[in-house]
């Protein structure tokens, strides 16, 4: 997948997720997401940070977090989550078409970020959010190959993962099958995706 195609997927996902968020009730915005400690509101706010962050603000925020980048990301999401919902969705929608990445972020990581966090929001609400298959396969490959922070190959090394809706497989061992979107969530550490799996390898992941 070339850069232009990756950006097309990112643009489409940002715009469609903004539309999705616009339709949520206050109670849904306050629903715990799949990201531990964050509600739907914090995840949505987090997705606006990368395209809008300025270098000086990032460096200052990291200093305030005493050099802990995870603490900085969490503080930024909680700060931005205090904005009105309409402002959060408008900022996310406006980022569709932007070609700015978060400091140090790779383009492939920006794609998996919007794909995974879209599910972090939708799944706890019990709403299906279809994921584009080619983008999901590309991102699952990315997550499976990378080490930090997911370590998917190490965590899932005894299972052969097989997608049911697009050609994709990884690993060795008893098979665990699921749609590619579920395998992406599994590879990125979302334990709820285990419920989507079938096959003998599933028992090794429960």
Span of the ends, CA to CA: 33 Å
Spatial order of the strands forming the largest sheet: 2-1-3
* CATH architectural label of the largest domain: Up-down Bundle
Tell me the strand percentage band. Answer: under 5%
Shape: globular
CATH superfamily of the largest domain: dinb family like domain
Order of helices and strands: HHHHHHHHHEEEH
Report the CATH C-level class of the largest domain.
Mainly Alpha
Class inferred from helices and paired strands: mainly alpha
- The proportion of residues forming helix, as a percent range, comes to 40-55%
Give the C-alpha Rg.
17 Å
Poorly predicted runs: none
Major β-sheet annotation: 3 strands, mixed
- Number of individual domains: 2
User: How many separate helices?
Assistant: 10
Mean of residue pLDDT? Answer: 92
How many strands appear in the DSSP assignment?
Answer: 3
CATH topology description of the largest domain: Four Helix Bundle (Hemerythrin (Met), subunit A)
Describe this structure in words.
This protein has 206 residues and is mainly alpha-helical. It has two domains: 3-125, dinb family like domain (Four Helix Bundle (Hemerythrin (Met), subunit A), Up-down Bundle), CATH 1.20.120.450; 133-204. The protein has ten helices and three strands; from the N terminus they run H-H-H-H-H-H-H-H-H-E-E-E-H. It has helices at residues 3-22, 26-29, 40-52, 55-64, 69-80, 85-94, 107-122, 133-145, 152-155, 180-187; strands at residues 160-163, 169-170, 175-178. Strands 2-1-3 form a three-stranded mixed β-sheet. Strand 1 and strand 2 (169-170) form a beta hairpin. The mean pLDDT is 92.
